[in-house]
Amino acid sequence: LAVAAMASPSSGRTGGNSVNQALKPSQWLSPQQLEGIGSVDDLTLERLESMSLEKGAELLQQVYHLSQINHDIEPTYVPSNVQVYVPKANGDKIVASLDEMTQLLKQEQNFGQDEVTIIVTGLPKNCETVNKANRKLVQAYMQRYNLKQQQEQGQKYNRDSSEDNNRQRTSSEEDYSEQAKSAKTQTGDIIVIDLGSKLPNYNSIAMLDTEAIGCIFGKWIVKMTDELQLPHETIHLIGQNIGAHVAGAAANEFTRLTGHKLRRVTGLDPSGIVAKGR
């Protein structure tokens, strides 16, 4: 890596993604800097969170420079036994593998009667910031699908206001209360494919074969919609970070197998692809 980073434009390779094409000589890293970066396995979200903003930005910049060195890395990581869970309004979860989940959902009364949102996580779960973001995403859809909860929340705001006349409600509280009163009935179910639990470090993310794992998820969605008799027009697929690329591959596989498109596919903060060939 040091030789590649220090190579001059005349001696470096000219094709592909070489350093001399992407970076100016003043941006090349010295051998000492390269040695200090460490392994990609050491680059974790916890490590970045513990660093100052300046140090974290410097480390990410160095890693980016390393990624510009010409390399041909084929993605090879295809995790198995990815867990799936279905959150319930009472706080419980149905947890199972992909293969087992379809059978369990058959036992759920009225599952998929309206909209079904499938979320593919794409960040390591060993970071509290990620866990918090995942919880908020699921909670947002739980609230959206639970009109009764919205109405009760609006009533709570009204009670709080009458009990404390000295506190003026914020505009957001007033808007929320009015929206809860006038909200249209909307129900749905959430399925979380917890791919992030199989991505413990940056190396697993970098080497993830998004096409292969996406095809696996796409085939499962086909099987689920067939066995549960769910119309494809009700399926909303969401992918987070590297999961956004996986969700796209899953949607393409669904279309390839069925000739139909899912109602909606959303990518949340899609990450850059590290390994080539994708």
TrEMBL record:
The keyword Zinc-finger does not apply. The keyword Glycoprotein does not apply. GO terms for cellular component: extracellular space. Keywords: Secreted, Signal. Its main location: secreted. It is found in: Secreted. Pfam families: Lipase. GO terms for molecular function: lipase activity; serine hydrolase activity. It comes from the Eukaryota. Residues 1-22, 149-182 are annotated as: Disordered. Residues 8-22 have a biased composition (Polar residues). Residues 115-276 form the Lipase domain. Residues 157-172 have a biased composition (Basic and acidic residues). One of its GO terms (biological process) is lipid catabolic process. Belongs to the AB hydrolase superfamily. Lipase family. This is Yolk protein 1. It comes from Drosophila setosifrons. The gene is Dsts\Yp1.
